Amino acid sequence: MAFTAETLAADDRFLAAILHCADQMLTIYRESPRIASIFAAQQRWLMAHAGFALHYGQPDDGKSGLYSGRFIDFAVRNDIASRNTAAAFMQEMLAYRFLRPVPGPDKRTRYLEPTETAEQHFTRWLVAHLTILDSLDGGERAGKVSADPSAMMAAIQPRIARSIIGSEAVRNPGPTFNLFNWANTGGLVMDYLISRLPEFPRTAERVVVGPLSLREIREQFMISNTHLKRLLTQAANMESVGWTEPSRKGDFWLSGRFILEYWNYQAAKFAIIDAAAEAVLGPAVLDEPQARRVV
């Protein structure tokens, strides 16, 4: 049986999975900043999932095919983006060669498909998450997907997209998470801050992560000094982050409330991915009593 969000959120050992996931996203960014920019803010991430799902065909939809009009209508209907933002995203993906034109059933419509580069990186995102789930119960999800990545991606990703787009827990996990994840590059900054966690006692009001170099963050994520300071100032005003000494001196800390928002978001997301994988691959493990060990 697939993990539930409640099971994952209640398991203190899930912290290791969260930290590993943050590290994986940062690794992808360092290797390919342009493709990783899609994961850097929630709106872009949701649009990317929507585009793939429309291309593959959503479960129970009975229709596949990606073109601008259909994508824009889907983004607006599901409150992901405005028409102008969705249209601009499509043009950006074409310019970056993550999308390309292909022949379609209607010659009057310009059909599009993800390029090999885009599909490979999205498959990598999926396999990274499945690998983490496998580490929790000894399953073989990642191996099964890696054995036939194109077919597995086409079968699993639309299920993930449909559930993520319809999930309040994923799209609105809390005010501080939303602050970072809706800001340009904010999602990557948040992943970086969370990756610094040494531990997380659930009763802790704050967790100190050590010195924080704003210069290092700016250079690593190509974010302006003004944008970064504004983001951290807003989070500090919410008492979600701060420094142990005045004037941004001393060690940096994250509030327990902020960490829990991130924790619960990850639990909801991983549960959705696991449910989609189980629907396509079958149960990860057959022996339920052993299925919840953490290695």
Q: Could you give a quick summary of the protein structure above?
A:
The chain has 295 residues and is mainly alpha-helical. It has 15 helices and six strands. It is globular, with a radius of gyration of 20 Å.
Task: Please describe what this structure looks like.
- The chain is mainly alpha-helical.
- Helices cover 61% and strands 9% of the residues.
- It contains 15 helices and six strands.
- The protein has a three-stranded antiparallel beta sheet.
- A hairpin with a 3-residue loop joins β5 and β6 (249-255).
- The longest helix has 26 residues, at 256-281.
Shape: globular
Question: What is the C-alpha radius of gyration, as a whole number of Å?
Answer: 20 Å
Strand order within the widest sheet? 1-3-2
The sequence of SSEs as H and E is HHHHEHHEEHHHHHHEHHEEH
Given the helix and strand composition, which structural class is it? mainly alpha
Q: In percent, how helical is the residue content?
A: 55-70%
Distance between the termini: 18 Å
Main sheet summary? 3 strands, antiparallel
Q: Averaged pLDDT, please?
A: 90
Percentage beta strand: 5-15%
- The total count of helices amounts to 15
Q: How many E-type strands?
A: 6
* Oligomer category: single chain
Poorly predicted runs: 289-295
